[in-house]
Amino acid sequence: MAEELEIKELDQVVVRFSGDSGDGMQLAGNIFSTVSATVGNGISTFPDYPADIRAPQGSLTGVSGFQVHIGAGKVYTPGDQCDVLVAMNAAALKTQLKYAKPQATIIIDTDSFGPKDLEKAQFATPDYLGELHVDPDRVIQCPLTTMVKACLAESGMDNKAILKCRNMFALGLVCWLFNRDLNLVANFLREKFAKKPAIAENNIKVVQAGYDYGHNTHSSVPATYRIESKTKVPGRYMDITGNKATAYGLIAAAEKAGLHLFLGSYPITPATDILHELSKHKSCGVITVQCEDEISGCASAIGASFAGALAATSTSGPGVCLKSEAMNLAVIDELPLVIVDVQRGGPSTGLPTKSEQTDLLQALFGRNGESPMPVIAALSPTDCFDAAYEAAKIALEHLTPVILLTDAFIANGSAAWKLPTMEGLQAIKPHYVTPEMKGHYTPYFRDEETKVRYWAIPGQEGYTHILGGLEKDGNTGAISTDPENHDHMCRLRAEKVAKIPVPDLQVLGDKDDADLLIVGFGSTYGHLVSAMQELQAKGYKVAQAQFKYVNPLPKNTAEVLSKYKKVVIAEQNLGQLATWLRANVDGLVPYQFNQVKGQPFVVAELVKAFEDILKK
């Protein structure tokens, strides 16, 4: 019987795990995505969890989700809707069904659909499938809790600990459905619970039980599925989140520059994982300090920069507000500093666990005085590595603070990443003082071409100097209130940033004859490229350009934006990039697509909106 089940090959599939915040959906999703990346599939993930520390069990507001899109080739987004929905309780089914395709396979734990569970989820009748208009034939109704208790009956674990393993049964069932190698799952669990081997082995046992349940019952599906990688580039791969990639990019930059890395930070969702990750790497010369507040996190990093380290500070939008005074100190002192802003929903405390692109104007202008800073926006979880490395390179070579914008979507999301080699990374050459300057060095003596000052490290004989928040004379370095000098220094600091070389803006798609150019910045890259491809498949001439370098803008920005009949700027705010581009490109009158929902774009909505513009 088991051998008769057909195995179908798919190009791509989207799976969404959902349940209570304590049900381990993030872990199950992470393991499934890691296993998929290990076998060479393209992946894109989207953790979607509530801001509550622990919402009431079974409540509609406490549902946590993890969506992963797996593809035979490159995957750009976590997908609009899922092909498989795992719903661990009634509330999860009710709130997450909207993310499932009409024909999706749904896996539920029938033990969590009792009268009290249905009441908490606000179902009106015991017929919850009928109430939601779900065809029972596409639902795998499994007594999951009962099965897990039976599996671990002899384990010696208490009931609470046993129930924490339910997510592994669901994972095993999904692994069966997609022919995943359970040895890879076992390796992951043994590594994760290396200090608690009994827990690892019990979880592995439950994963196997879930797999066997699917295999032995066929679980009401006509076939299982396999997703083979179409293109395999040799190398070492891992499933990496944006926050971890950001941390690795900073470590690599420090190593390449021959410096210690210092991170001064204060915990804040969703940036805290950068602090957690960097704190693990003391062996790489990384120094991390969890400070008492945001401004001290930034100020301590400035002190480390003055002392000669590659300095960074990590935060989210509310923290940038609090760091702004210290950031300005780095501007006037012209010290290298990387400020990582993992954007989240605002204003104020706003939506701590949701994602937006609403800090762009704050990054550009959110400080007192003329306070220019380079701004880089990472495009994807894996691009966070490259963007962090580039931000550090610019900071060290141009003696300036640099803002790196990521956001909750790419910081918590993950993708398959091919590990780079140190030899393949660009050289980083900090703009140090020269031996010829010894004895007559002043802190604002500059390279005539780039306008970058020279970096002297305290303790170097013959390079004594003072930096501070008061304006200094450009020649002597002494405190100055002279109006002409202040005007001159403001212009020099702006000119220095404007002269930083950045790559040209690249145009994808029908770049020579497009009727519409789709423009965005940062993390919307995958959704906008996917929308472009769907429009091309419909026969439209469409191109796409994504800004990674926001300040300074690429030199060909005006040329590109002026070339096309219609330009639409799509962003997850109310028009901040559009404002910045209109200020810098004469005559630009773009269409705009703006959403501030705390959720990623839906490709189908983008396609419809852009198609309407094309038809006008």
Automatic annotation (TrEMBL):
Q: Where is the Pyruvate/ketoisovalerate oxidoreductase catalytic domain?
A: 22-212
Domain Pyruvate:ferredoxin oxidoreductase core stretches: 514-588
Is Oxidoreductase given among the entry's keywords? yes
Swiss-Prot/TrEMBL keywords: Oxidoreductase
Q: Where is the Pyruvate flavodoxin/ferredoxin oxidoreductase pyrimidine binding domain?
A: 262-465
User: Is Oxidoreductase found in the keyword set?
Assistant: yes
A Pfam family in this protein?
Answer: POR
| Residues in coiled coil | none
Organism superkingdom? Bacteria
The protein in question is named 2-oxoacid:acceptor oxidoreductase subunit alpha
Q: Could you tell me which species this protein originates from?
A: Xylanibacter brevis
